[in-house]
Design brief:
By secondary structure, the chain is mainly alpha-helical. 59% of the residues lie in helices and 12% in strands.
């Protein structure tokens, strides 16, 4: 008889050890939702362009806006979303606020996604 939390996967003609292990190691719903939200943040082309620019050098809003051909308010809005997702950080230099990637993980995620797309 099946355990209460175990859902039969198929007709039972083969071993389900790998599926059982995967089920046991599945993150909880809160973590899965947080991951989905993070990937949604990466799902906007403008935000990816901003992240790519910031992977090259720290930049202020006006520089990002000029390079991307966007208004400063539009860039500020996207930077706010990226900051809330903890993908970028800001630091004040005099009267200017410079933005950079939060850490190397962000650059790694973008690099790995690019590599994946370039594979045959």
């Amino acid at each position: 008889m099946d355990e209460p939390d175990r859902i039969p996967l198929c007709d039972g003609r083969h071993d389900h050890a790998a599926a059982d292990l995967a089920r046991q190691e599945m993150p909880d719903e809160a973590e899965l939702n947080a991951l989905a939200e993070l990937f949604k943040t990466f799902g906007d082309p403008t935000r990816i362009r901003i992240l790519y620019l910031l992977s090259r050098a720290p930049l202020c809003v006006c520089d990002v806006a000029a390079v991307l051909g966007l208004t400063q308010p539009a860039v500020s809005y996207q930077l706010k979303i990226l900051r809330q997702a903890r993908l970028i950080r800001s630091r004040r230099v005099g009267k200017t606020v410079c933005y950079s990637l939060a850490d190397r993980h962000v650059e790694t995620i973008i690099g790995m996604a690019k590599e994946h797309l370039e594979e045959e």
